[in-house]
Amino acid sequence: MEQIIRTQRPLTGVIRQLRPSDLPRFAEHLLRLDDQSRRDRFNGLTHDGFLQAYAERSFHEGATVIGYVEGDKVLAAAELHERAEASEPTAEIAFSVEREIQHRGIGGRLFQRLVAQARGLGYLRLQVTTHSNNSAMKALARRFNAKLSFQQGETNGIIELNGETDLDADRRAPTDLGRRATGKAIAA
């Protein structure tokens, strides 16, 4: 019997906040999403014109977009959209990962970066909405302590950010950095 071994190409990109000049690359990323990935991201099928307008609206309305970038291509993105109508500082989050790099940890790394960015912007709550069959997104949201509920054919999640942050824990942790830092200082 012949065994087929599939190798995955190494991930060589970086995760970074997308700049306004990255708008065309973000739009190209959305347009490259296959039908299932589009359905997972937008809770239904979308046409190319909608995706182009969505990308432009995201950048022009002040959304924070963090991308996984290889070369000059955005291959995955995490978005933070303010929900100004909410009583507490709240943002809705969304993720898209192109098929060939799915299930390789990119979504989790983008999620971590997005949560840190949301805390830095002072948000207290994040919302995520996906269709009921998007098991990858539901699992990812659960990893970040989302409280999930099912309403009107969608899964809705709330992530509370008002708990202790990693920085709070770091401030209380005993370190000997202070002792090491009292050595000689060298001016450049």
UniProtKB/TrEMBL annotation:
<feature type="domain" description="N-acetyltransferase">
    <location>
        <begin position="13"/>
        <end position="174"/>
    </location>
</feature>
<dbReference type="InterPro" id="IPR016181">
    <property type="entry name" value="Acyl_CoA_acyltransferase"/>
</dbReference>
<dbReference type="Pfam" id="PF00583">
    <property type="entry name" value="Acetyltransf_1"/>
</dbReference>
<dbReference type="InterPro" id="IPR000182">
    <property type="entry name" value="GNAT_dom"/>
</dbReference>
<dbReference type="GO" id="GO:0016747">
    <property type="term" value="F:acyltransferase activity, transferring groups other than amino-acyl groups"/>
</dbReference>
<protein>
    <submittedName>
        <fullName>GNAT family N-acetyltransferase</fullName>
    </submittedName>
</protein>
